[in-house]
Design brief:
There is one protein chain. With 423 residues, the protein is mainly β. It has 2 domains: 5-91, no CATH class; 117-416, Fucose-specific lectin (Neuraminidase). Helices cover 6% and strands 45% of the residues. The protein has 2 helices and 30 strands. The strands form 8 sheets. A 4-stranded antiparallel sheet has the order 3-4-5-6, with helices on one face. A 4-stranded antiparallel sheet has the order 7-8-9-10. β15 (248-256) and β16 (259-265) form a beta hairpin. The model is unreliable at 1-111 (pLDDT under 50).
């Protein structure tokens, strides 16, 4: 994302609105939804879209990207990443590239890596994975892994509104979905836009599929209400869902037609977890340790095993587990003063990953940190086995450049992965 600070500021104002500490710009017509936060020395900045709630956060020291909370997307992954990237560039904050104890791998992403950021990743095998996100121009970005290399794949970018993508899911090499302010489908040959009842001021931050005829997408309507859509193999329809005041959904996961989870938070700063039982979405009690708690991601492997991750108040990781009866908070690493987890993936009751400002793994007994500080904020993770996982996000190699970040787990170590030229 190579833009002058002025151009980026204009884009930010056009798509999200931008305010100083505690200010609330009027909702903008493009409908990029968000309530995202970053921290500056002595205060905080906030960028708001259609959500009506504003809040001020306590200042914390800035020490590289980990002090800025660049991955606190709160409303949607794609807006959080975009706002963080724009804030990094416009405000001149320290970049992510200086991390000295990053996961083992090549020192840089290479010139072939596109400008922008990745919000989510999905994989069906060691030879098929998708990563989605966007760039500073509000355009979507879709990358594909074929078992040998990552390449950029053409995708529709409707005019008149941001088309940045926040979530992706796949069930086979010929069936994948990507969501944001629009919904795109991969049919094995090309990405096509599919009609959907996404409100003009709303958007979707996550999508999950159990088959070609059972797909869920979750987000917010842009007015403080949850938004859940379902694909039945023929059309997308909106499904009623509980909506406490000011609530939004940031993650969704499903294991069958009668078992799905959606997570987020309420306007009161409480965790929000909804469950689909095959007939209706119902709110399920969930731990909320302090007044300001947020859930950003969810993963499930069965009706008796699910994980939800996020953040407690200011920069403490939060991990909850569903054991088939109740959600319980689980101890997890918090090695630095400021931490947040943005995505989670699981392949079994004994293997799960969570990523954000750090990478942690569940081994069946406890969550343990793996490696040091990532090269940049990680916003999404996917796994197909104990020896194959992907994590995506972005880095800032220089003052005015934001690059996509892709890491791969090979069963032993996380490595940074370079890209091939676009198709």
């Amino acid at each position: 994302m190579r833009h002058a600070a002025g151009a980026i500021a204009v884009f930010l104002a056009m798509t999200m609105g931008f305010g100083g500490c505690g200010t609330r710009p009027a909702p903008q017509p493009h409908g990029v939804l968000s309530h995202v936060r970053g921290v500056l020395p002595g205060g905080s900045w906030e960028a708001h879209g259609a959500l009506p709630r504003a809040e001020r956060v306590s200042p914390v020291p800035v020490a590289g990207w980990e002090g800025m909370d660049p991955v606190n997307r709160n409303m949607t992954r794609f807006v959080g990443a975009l706002a963080a990237a724009i804030a990094l560039t416009t405000l001149g904050l320290p970049g992510a590239g200086a991390a000295s104890n990053a996961p083992t791998g090549p020192p840089g992403l290479g010139a072939s890596v596109p400008d922008g950021f990745l919000n989510a990743v999905a994989a069906t095998s060691a030879a098929n994975a998708w990563a989605v996100g966007g760039n500073g121009a509000g355009k979507n970005l879709i990358l594909h892994w074929n078992g040998t290399a990552w390449t950029r794949v053409p995708s529709p970018n409707p005019a008149g509104r941001s088309s940045v993508l926040g979530g992706v899911t796949a069930t086979s090499a010929t069936n994948a979905w990507a969501v944001g302010s629009v919904i795109l489908h991969w049919n094995g040959t090309a990405w096509k836009r599919v009609a959907s009842p996404v409100p003009a001021q709303g958007g979707l931050s996550s999508v999950a599929a159990t088959s070609a005829r059972d797909v869920w997408a979750a987000g917010g309507n842009g007015a403080g209400k949850t938004l859940i859509l379902h694909w039945n193999g023929r059309a997308w329809t909106r499904v009623p869902s509980p909506s406490p005041p000011g609530s939004v959904l940031s993650g969704v996961a499903a294991t069958s037609a009668t078992n799905a989870w959606a997570v987020g938070y309420t306007g009161a700063g409480k965790t929000l977890i909804l469950h689909w039982n095959g007939r209706a979405w119902k709110r399920v009690p969930s731990p909320s340790p302090v007044p300001s708690d947020f859930l950003f991601g969810v993963a499930a492997t069965s009706a008796g095993n699910a994980w939800a991750v996020g953040q407690i108040h200011i920069f403490k990781t939060l991990i909850l587990r569903w054991n088939g009866r109740a959600w319980k908070q689980v101890p997890n690493p918090n090695p630095r003063p400021e931490n947040a987890l943005q995505g989670v993936a699981a392949t079994s009751a004994r293997n799960a990953w969570a990523v954000g400002s750090l990478i942690v793994r569940w081994n069946g007994r406890a969550w343990k940190q793996v490696g040091g500080v990532p090269p940049g904020p990680l916003l999404g993770v996917a796994a197909t086995s104990v020896s194959n996982a992907w994590a995506v996000g972005f880095t800032q190699p220089s003052h005015d450049v934001v690059k996509v970040l892709i890491l791969h787990w090979n069963g032993t170590v996380w490595k940074t992965v370079t890209m091939s030229p676009a198709r």
